[in-house]
Design goal:
mainly alpha; two-stranded antiparallel sheet; flat
C-alpha cells in the first residue's frame, strides 16, 4: 500500500516494455525461421516475416508487457493484478495502433515527428499494463477499494471578476477520474 510515485510507475512501464519487446522479437524470429527455408523465393520469406511479426505483436507483446510490469511490481513489493494488467495491455494495442496511424496521417513532411507517434503508439500497451496492474492496489486508506477510487463524471462552473470588471467564467468537465 502507499502511493508508489512516478519512479515506480516508470520502472513498471520500462519492465513491461523490455519484456514485451524481447518476447515479441524472440517469437518473431522463431516463427520467421520456422516458416521460411533457405532457397525460398523472396515473397515467401517476406510473408513469413510479416505473418510472424503480426502474430508476435498480437499474442506476445501484451503478455510480455503485463509480465514485465508484474515482475517489477513484485520485486518492489507492490501488490497488483497480472490479469488486469494483461487486459489493459491488450486494450493498449488498438490504442497504440490508432496513435501510430494518426501520426502517419498528419500532413507534414517530418519523419522525426511521424516516428515519435510510432514510438508513442508502442508505449500504449506497457502504459496500459502499468495502469491495470495498479488499479487493484489500495494506495491510501482514504481511497479504499476501486469503487471508492473511481469518481463519477462532474461538471463545474466557476466565475469571477477580473481587475477590469469583466465577468470571467470557466467550465471544468471531468469524464473519468481514477485515484491511485
Amino acid at each position: 500500500s502507499g502511493n508508489p510515485g512516478f519512479g515506480l510507475y516508470a520502472a513498471e512501464t520500462g519492465g513491461g516494455l523490455l519484456l514485451g519487446a524481447v518476447g515479441t522479437a524472440g517469437l518473431w524470429y522463431g516463427l520467421a525461421a520456422a516458416w521460411s527455408k533457405p532457397g525460398d523465393d523472396i515473397e515467401h520469406q517476406l510473408m513469413a516475416q510479416v505473418f510472424g511479426g503480426i502474430v508476435s505483436v498480437v499474442l506476445v507483446y501484451p503478455l510480455g508487457c503485463a509480465a514485465g510490469t508484474s515482475i517489477v511490481g513484485q520485486l518492489t513489493e507492490q501488490d497488483g493484478s497480472f490479469g488486469i494488467a494483461y487486459l489493459c495491455a491488450l486494450a493498449g494495442l488498438p490504442v497504440g495502433y490508432g496513435i501510430a496511424a494518426g501520426g502517419q496521417a498528419i500532413p507534414v513532411d517530418s519523419d522525426v515527428l511521424k516516428g515519435a507517434f510510432v514510438v508513442a503508439g508502442c508505449l500504449a500497451p506497457p502504459v496500459g499494463a502499468t495502469v491495470g496492474y495498479n488499479l487493484k492496489r489500495s494506495p491510501d486508506a482514504s481511497y479504499g477499494l476501486l469503487d471508492r477510487r473511481l469518481v463519477p463524471p462532474s461538471i463545474g462552473v466557476k466565475s469571477w471578476s477580473d481587475p477590469e470588471g469583466n465577468t470571467v467564467a470557466t467550465t471544468d468537465f471531468r469524464l473519468l477520474t481514477v485515484r491511485f
